[in-house]
Design a protein that fits this description.
Blueprint: H1 2-33, H2 41-45, H3 54-62, H4 66-72, H5 74-95, H6 99-108, H7 111-128, H8 130-143
């Protein structure tokens, strides 16, 4: 068991060291990616995919424009917060050896928790495309 704890602490330490360079790299990449994107389902069909606005959400999150980031894609926004909380809880659980955070991490990555994330993601896709479905049904009714 000590072997696993030592490796886990090393992994958390490596993640901590890589966080700031990764943040800088993501800021640079997000600005570059906005000008070189391929056509998506929105431009081809008028249908919003699950990650529609995700790049702009990440870009605004990295620039600390949290309200704009949330407006672009709430699921990606909360996913980023979930990952940040995971890193914080990993630090508290393994580096500082606070036991309650190990239990929180177990819950965060349990099957029910992941099913809630998947369900939220699928509901988000369905709800954000209701206007498209209405337009599609109107088109079919008019055509007949």
């Amino acid at each position: 068991m000590k072997f696993l704890n030592k490796n886990a602490r090393l992994l958390v330490f490596i993640c901590d060291i890589l966080t700031i360079p990764a943040w800088i790299l993501l800021r640079w990449l997000s600005l570059k990616m906005l000008s070189t994107q391929r056509p998506c389902t929105w431009t081809l069909f008028g249908l919003q995919c699950a990650t529609c606005g995700g790049t702009r959400c990440v870009k605004n999150f990295l620039l600390f424009n949290f309200i704009e980031a949330f407006k672009y894609n709430p699921v990606v926004f909360f996913g980023i917060i979930y990952l940040i909380l995971t890193l914080i809880f990993l630090n508290l659980a393994f580096v500082f050896k606070v036991g309650i955070f190990k239990r929180i991490l177990k819950y965060m990555y349990s099957i029910p928790s992941l099913l809630i994330w998947v369900g939220t993601f699928l509901m988000f896709i369905a709800v954000r495309n209701i206007p498209w479905l209405i337009r599609f049904l109107e088109y079919i009714i008019r055509k007949n």
